[in-house]
# Entry
Amino acid sequence: MKKLFFIGALSALLLTACGEEETATITPDEFKKLETGMSTEKVKEIVGGKPKNPDAKESDDLLLIFDYDGENGVDKEASVSLIFKDGKLNTIIEDGLIEEKAETATKPNEETPVAVTWQDKVKEIATKEGTPTEKYDAVMVYAKEYPSTEAEIKEFEEYIIAEYKNKKYVADINNAEYMLSNVFRANVINRFYGQVDTPINKFAFDFYQNTKYTYRGEDTLDSSAVRSNERQMDKALKQMGK
# Structure
């Protein structure tokens, strides 16, 4: 009986091990095989496993982000972010795998560069070549890892409320830097509070929705969706006594 029990336990252990997907890294050779339009399954087949963010889930606009550590890249702390939309690879962002990271590319005897602020990063993204959706995707990847403080969150909250109340927040939807800055602020607020159901969190989410869809050209300022979100924002402001 003991022998049979041991064999059964071993078999169960092997089955569990075989069914568990390993966390993968991406090498330069694997990276070069990635192409937009690939499915998540094809990407995992190429890199040999799952991303390091196992809790990655599709967002409200069917956006899915896979994060991987780089292996044998030009920088020891290389990373790769893959953005999927509607189940297909849409955007590929590498940092230090193929090209050296900007902050580590200093030459000997050069002064240490000033720390890059979130405003600098958003401006850099806004001024690069690309579609509004591609720029939005890049800002979302950056916002996902941004280490905000409570003081900064309060500053962001006051700012987006003021921009909404003076109706400036969608007055110039072609201003990429302004619109992406507001997308960044609102998303960072939502990530800070998580799933907490509070008026400011609801307000920030609807602000984010209107900013995102009007900037990307997927909604007009007079659309029913935009107006509906604004009614929810007005309700949230009333609950906050603003």
The first helix runs from residue 2 to 19. The CA atoms of residues 182 and 211 lie 7 Å apart.
